[in-house]
């Protein structure tokens, strides 16, 4: 089983049961505890690997969404970002819920930097008159984060179809921050 597959299964297991052991993760992944322990000596090591993988996926999604293309439409770029982030919900939801990674300096740095691409897009949208300027850029980013999280939880609980989520997030956010 590949590292990404193990991390995908670990995310599912730990979201369902935050106190799950490495043995529980190994069983769900269909690998031996020894195999899992060779890759992740401790539960904390697995959690750090999960967080880094989630940040890697967010970074790739933001790059693929081409948010910084000069002259591109801000609203379309925001739609691409939302569409790219919705499928990452379980990973990001896991990170938001995980306690105990605040002592890992490189994860703290990645957290602090993770919103930068969207923040730059928001600022560009404000400068172009596409997004409200009477609220701070950080507030718009926080509103987006809250909308993403709500969508991920609604998908997880079966209230919202994954394909409907990007449009709902965009509509909700733009009616709150759009001009």
UniProtKB/TrEMBL annotation:
Residues 1-58 form the HTH tetR-type domain. The keyword Transcription applies. Residues 21-40 bind DNA. One of its GO terms (molecular function) is transcription cis-regulatory region binding. It comes from the Bacteria. Keywords: DNA-binding, Transcription, Transcription regulation. The keyword Ubl conjugation does not apply. InterPro entries: Homeodomain-like_sf, HTH-type_TetR-like_transc_reg, HTH_TetR, Tet_transcr_reg_TetR-rel_C_sf. This is Transcriptional regulator, TetR family.
């Amino acid at each position: 089983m590949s590292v990404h597959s193990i991390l995908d299964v670990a995310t599912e297991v730990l979201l369902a049961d935050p106190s799950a052991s490495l043995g529980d993760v190994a069983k769900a992944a269909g690998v031996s505890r020894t195999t899992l322990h060779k890759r992740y000596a401790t539960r904390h090591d697995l959690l750090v690997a999960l967080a880094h993988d989630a940040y890697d996926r967010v970074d790739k999604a933001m790059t693929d969404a081409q948010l910084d293309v000069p002259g591109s439409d801000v609203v379309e770029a925001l739609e691409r970002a939302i569409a790219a982030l919705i499928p990452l919900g379980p990973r990001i939801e896991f990170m938001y819920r995980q306690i105990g990674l605040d002592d890992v300096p490189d994860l703290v740095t990645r957290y602090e930097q993770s919103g930068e691409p969207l923040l730059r897009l928001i600022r560009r949208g404000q400068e172009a008159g596409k997004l409200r300027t009477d609220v701070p850029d950080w507030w718009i980013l926080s509103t987006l984060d809250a909308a993403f999280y709500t969508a991920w939880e609604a998908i997880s609980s079966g209230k919202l179809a994954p394909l409907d989520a990007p449009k709902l997030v965009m509509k909700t956010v733009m009616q709150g921050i759009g001009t």
